[in-house]
């Protein structure tokens, strides 16, 4: 299937998820991320999105809390979307960082401690679904592909999602940045890019 078809299907599937299911998915994904981080002590800056509850995204707030408790040396970085173009800027996120909702209902940090993309060691990437080759379907705005292209080549790009990968996305674009791995409640899959 192509990205547009998958985007339509998985937006509908995600809209049907209950709060309980999202909580269970988030807990399972959090377990796998914590386990992965314990095997990767080199991670010092981890970037994650903040969840848009109106889009039934994974609860990354709960994952952030677990990382802060279990890995106090890791600095959490979160994005803020540019107003007029599909660009992200990146900010340190601590327990004292405030948030406000942007026009799409996505929480964004209100702090001013910017972190350059080159310092980020791993990114938890939002997505609707991915395939077994590491191509992902997002919302179609291109924010994350532009951001991931700014990261170092060795930065881990890890998609997180409630749904298991599909066999193949038929139309990945030349500009699409492949994931290194994805995490679902059922497992951590390394794509070996």
UniProtKB/TrEMBL annotation:
EC assignment: 6.3.3.2
Looking at the UniProt entry, the stretches that span the membrane are none
Catalysis: reaction(s): (6S)-5-formyl-5,6,7,8-tetrahydrofolate + ATP = (6R)-5,10-methenyltetrahydrofolate + ADP + phosphate
Where in the sequence is the signal peptide annotated?
A: none
The name under which this protein is listed is 5-formyltetrahydrofolate cyclo-ligase
Q: Which domain of life is it from?
A: Bacteria
Cofactors needed by this protein, per the record, are: Mg(2+)
Q: What is the lineage of its organism?
A: Bacteria, Pseudomonadati, Bacteroidota, Cytophagia, Cytophagales
């Amino acid at each position: 299937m192509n990205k547009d078809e998958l985007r339509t299907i998985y937006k509908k599937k995600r809209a049907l998820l209950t709060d309980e299911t999202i909580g269970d998915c988030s807990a399972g994904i959090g377990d796998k991320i914590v386990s992965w981080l314990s095997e990767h002590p080199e991670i010092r800056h981890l970037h994650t999105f903040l969840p848009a509850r109106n889009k039934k995204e994974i609860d990354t707030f709960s994952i952030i809390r677990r990382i802060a408790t279990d890995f106090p040396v890791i600095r959490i970085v979160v994005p803020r979307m540019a107003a007029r173009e599909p660009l992200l800027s990146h900010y340190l996120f601590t327990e004292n960082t405030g948030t406000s909702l942007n026009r799409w209902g996505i929480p964004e940090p209100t702090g001013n401690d910017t972190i350059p993309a080159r310092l980020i060691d791993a990114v938890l990437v939002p997505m609707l679904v991915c395939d077994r080759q590491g191509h992902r379907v997002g919302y179609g705005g291109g924010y994350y592909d532009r951001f991931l292209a700014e990261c170092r080549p060795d930065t881990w790009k890890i998609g997180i999602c409630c749904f298991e990968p599909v066999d193949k996305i038929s139309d990945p674009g030349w500009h699409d940045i492949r994931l290194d791995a994805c995490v679902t409640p059922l497992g951590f899959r390394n794509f070996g890019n």
